[in-house]
Amino acid sequence: MTAHEDPAAFAPELILLAGAVVALLTGSFVHQRQQWAAQLVAAIALAGSLVAGATAGASGQTLYAGSYAIDAATFAARLIVPAAALLVLGLSAGRVRGSARESEFAVLVLLASLGTILLAGSTDLLLLAVAYLLASIPLYALAGWARDPAGAEGALKTYLFGVLLGIVMFLGIAVLFGLAGSTSYADLAQRLPGAPPAALALGAVAVFAGLLFKAGAVPVHFWVPDAVQGATTGAGAFLTTVPKIGALLALYRFVLVLPDDAINWRLLLALLAAASMTLGNLAAFRQDDPARLLAYSTISQVGYLLMVVVVADPVAGSAPLAALILYLAAYAAANLGAFAVIAARPGLSTLTDYRGLARQSPALAGVLVVSLLALVGTPPTGVFTGKLTVFAATWDGGWAWLVVVAAVNTVASLYYYLRWIAPAFARPDPSAGSTGGAVAEGSTPVAWPARCVIAAAVTTGCLALLIGIVADGVLDIGSAAIKW
């Protein structure tokens, strides 16, 4: 066995794959009332993958003929993705418990998480294509998991966009292969500088299209609001959090092989970053549905994250990558925290319905405040440190105008987050009646699923603060250079 074929180095991914198979078989052979066993299998697999990823570290080696790298980006994905997926299982407990498709939800989460990690670690365009499919196909099913009209509409839009942009991405891969004669990132970095600029631009933009779809960025963002609003709360939380991690790390890795002197890809991504944060914010101003507000919020967040990709440079050090990893980790915690509050209060369909939440459930109100202010970038949360490092890296990279646009959008975003926070601390309206107990999403509250949702909400709120406190340690994760 050669070094690049060592299965032990691939342990975190293999654990997720094995967990998906076992969860599927478990759900197929146990009674519907015991489908929770598949959820338990999924949770164990995610925890096992997280431990294995933390143990493996960022060795810098490449596996399987250089097609997969175990470096800082992959290490970060191995930590953030399983942790986020575990929280999704927790905040989904009340909704999926007792459903005939309870095991399916667990399997889909595992497979999508596996595809996301593969996206982050791919150093070959062919593996990138496979990872894209594995990370996308389960999402279509998750979006329509509830099998209701709204979910079906969201799933259909996600599927149509995903298939179309997947084909465009594969076209780009074919063009780049034709130019370089190889799909390996190492070969692309050496051979693309001499390629015809028009063909190189076509290939690069086509690959961008697929990865930007996964991230939910402008101009391929139209599926996000309908998919999140139509999906269950847990599926919406997953859709707006986990795919971004793999997509942005994959995009960061891919742009490092593109020559600056042939095509101005940095300006293109800078314009898309500015458009994403601006259009996402403008659309969020008028939203009254919490899930839809978070859907547009996540589009704006992609704009801030893309700023780091704009200044990615293989010879400029690892500061941009470290900033991206910190921001992704902090954003995941804050975004999941906001969705956990929605899951804990399933009967509240508008922002004004949260009136009096602070008196009825101080813990949930606290999580809501921390999560939403974290998304703005308020100290001492992790997103504040993440934005600060992102802005600093972008400014040092010579894109001052983009930092100014991002700063203005950050201030503007405070408005629609406060529209959600303010009612929570207002006096309850006696004429409105009870807004419902702090129970998990579903028509029939169940004791332990309800506790799982509350625990997930509190955990995410604490993580949003903790990541800000231990930001230096998170930045150290991204201190190693990306390999291929």
UniProtKB/TrEMBL annotation:
Give the keywords, sorted: Cell membrane, Membrane, NAD, Quinone, Translocase, Transmembrane, Transmembrane helix, Transport
Q: What is the lineage of its organism?
A: Bacteria, Bacillati, Actinomycetota, Actinomycetes, Micrococcales
InterPro entries linked: NADH-Q_OxRdtase_suN/2, ND/Mrp_TM
Which Pfam families does the entry mention?
Answer: Proton_antipo_M
Q: What is the annotated localization of this protein?
A: Cell membrane; Endomembrane system; Membrane
Family under the similarity heading = Belongs to the complex I subunit 2 family.
Membrane topology, as annotated, equals: Multi-pass membrane protein
Q: For this UniProt entry, which segments traverse the membrane? A: 14-30, 37-56, 68-91, 103-120, 126-146, 158-180, 200-224, 236-255, 267-286, 293-312, 324-344, 356-378, 398-418
Reactions performed catalytically: a quinone + NADH + 5 H(+)(in) = a quinol + NAD(+) + 4 H(+)(out)
Its main subcellular localisation, reduced to a broad class, is membrane
EC number(s) on file: 7.1.1.-
This protein is called: NADH-quinone oxidoreductase subunit N
Which top-rank group of organisms is this from?
A: Bacteria
**What task does this protein carry out?**
NDH-1 shuttles electrons from NADH, via FMN and iron-sulfur (Fe-S) centers, to quinones in the respiratory chain. The immediate electron acceptor for the enzyme in this species is believed to be a menaquinone. Couples the redox reaction to proton translocation (for every two electrons transferred, four hydrogen ions are translocated across the cytoplasmic membrane), and thus conserves the redox energy in a proton gradient.
- Residue ranges of domain NADH:quinone oxidoreductase/Mrp antiporter transmembrane in the record: 122-411
Q: How does it assemble?
A: NDH-1 is composed of 14 different subunits. Subunits NuoA, H, J, K, L, M, N constitute the membrane sector of the complex.
